[in-house]
Design brief:
Layout: E1 2-5, E2 9-17, E3 20-27, H1 53-56, E4 73-77, E5 80-86, E6 90-91, E7 100-101, H2 116-139, E8 143-148, E9 151-156, H3 164-178, E10 195-197, E11 203-205, H4 207-216, H5 218-233, H6 241-244, H7 249-311
Antiparallel strand pairs: 1-2, 2-3, 4-5, 6-7, 8-9, 10-11
Helix pairs in contact: 2-3, 3-5, 4-5
């Protein structure tokens, strides 16, 4: 048993009985989109539909052949008019979010249920991410007072002099409060999904309430979350994009702080230069003053000596 694979088809020699052999040529693809295999009786064709010649070129002829032509998968779905044709048995472009694996001929009933665990995990990710932002902002937005005897210093955290962080949190909160679905029954707002706001500004997630809402009004839950995605995560929604995009509010704030730091450093450098110049001037003045004091001392000594001579 020997096989040869050229990427598009595989040819293998099989001993069917002592001294009797057969060559099996199989396509490596499903359906007809990639072409078909043609192996007629007699010598290999000059230009086969699929290049299988390297696998069979050593054989002078084929006594006979049996072919099983490939066909595309055909199926129907209740609610969709017409017959659907696909070249693969794995179909993922008919029903959004659903992959069909065609196993054989017949009819099947497909039941689609809400993925409670998966949906709960995604909402929990949103809650955790928001709470991480709130914790980061609170930690870096403090102004502390340090006292050392008579000296009192106010220490500003990195975000304490900026409003961009507070504005970002406010924008996300607005997206949460604005994500509603008025056509639903009892599930209309984020609080109905079990997501509520704590006193410290963080979010609390009641997973049991979310599962109950998903089980009773899946459409309402889906619409609320989709609305939140539109308000918070898209270019049109702007809640997050206006901060994180290139040259957005965060970039503008960071660049503004960098410019301020650069200006302050330049002013500090200029002040230090002025201090050095003033120091040189003061040193020169003190040096001159020391010289004058020395001359006065010498004159005083001479005057004292002269006065002493007169007294004698």
């Amino acid at each position: 048993n020997h096989a040869n694979n050229n990427g598009r088809a595989t040819a293998s020699m099989v001993e069917v009985s002592p001294g009797s052999y057969a060559i099996v040529v199989s396509s490596n693809f499903e359906g007809t989109a990639k072409g078909s295999i043609y192996v007629p009786p007699g010598p290999p064709p000059t230009t086969p539909a699929v290049d299988v010649a390297p696998a069979i070129s050593a054989l002078p002829m084929f006594a006979s052949e049996t072919s099983s032509a490939a066909t595309d998968a055909q199926f129907t779905i209740s609610g969709i008019a017409g017959t659907i044709t696909r070249s693969s048995n794995t179909v993922s472009d008919v029903i959004d979010g659903l992959t069909l694996n065609l196993q054989g001929i017949g009819a099947s009933t497909i039941t689609i249920k809400e993925d409670v665990a998966g949906s709960t995990a995604k909402v929990q990710d949103i809650v955790d991410a928001f709470n991480d932002i709130v914790a980061f902002v609170n930690e870096n937005n403090l102004i502390t007072r340090e006292e050392d005897g008579e000296n009192v210093n106010n220490v500003f955290s990195p975000l304490s002099s900026s409003r961009v962080d507070d504005n970002a949190v406010t924008a996300i909160k607005s997206a949460i409060s604005g994500s509603t679905y008025t056509s639903g029954g009892l599930v209309r707002i984020f609080a109905d999904l079990g997501v509520t706001t704590e006193r410290d500004g963080t979010l609390k997630f009641d997973t049991d309430k979310f599962a109950e809402a998903l089980g009773s009004e899946a459409t309402s839950v889906n619409e609320i979350l989709m609305n939140f995605g539109d308000l918070a995560g898209t270019v049109q929604g702007l809640a997050i994009y206006q901060f994180t995009r290139a040259n957005g509010l965060i970039d503008v704030t960071v660049n503004g702080n960098k410019s301020l730091i650069t200006n302050l450093n330049e002013r500090i450098a200029q002040a230090e230069s002025q201090i050095l110049k003033q120091e040189e001037i003061m040193r020169a003045r003190f040096s001159r003053l020391e010289g004058l004091i020395g001359n006065l001392q010498n004159q005083q000594s001479a005057l004292t000596s002269a006065l002493s001579g007169l007294g004698q």
